[in-house]
Description:
The protein is an alpha+beta fold. It contains 1 helix and 11 strands, in the order E-E-E-E-E-E-E-E-E-E-E-H. The chain is elongated and about 110 Å long.
Amino acid sequence: MAGTPKLIVLSEQLRGKSFELTKDLYTVGRSEERDICIKDPTISTYHCEFIRNGDAYILRDNNSTNGTRVNNVPVTEQALQNSDIIQLGGVELLYDRDDKSVTTVMRTQTGIDLESAEVGVATTRNMEDFELISSRKLTPTQMTLIGVVVLLVIAILGLLIWIGVLLTGKSSAGTATSTSVKQSVFSRLA
């Protein structure tokens, strides 16, 4: 005997929230008027509906803006199987029937086709065209800019050296002054 079908939100915003499906019809959308309201901007006001079909449900898209997918396949109407992954816009839900006897084998689809891909294709340019230093000519503006930068570096180095000389000169002059003061103090005492 199958358990009560439910939808379990997998997306981060409402992860873990679940909706038990017990009625014959459920409307889903962003609007509070829907049976299942999911406040997400990627879900239409009246996105889709779940219709009871025996023990299971059929999912029917209601011409939603961002579409409805089951196991990553766009659908307009789809009979649901246990463990189907439903995408309503950008929100993912798990359809769970608690039916241990029926499981759906899912195949994940990616945009990569490994069977038709070429192996060993170089992604860099031909090494014959590779140069460490560009041989293109500099424009007059670029040359002027380089010249200004070089002059500024030289000026800053010169300024630092000049400051260093001034500081060194003051400390040696201060040493000489303090020595002469000490000598005059000692001569007065004697």
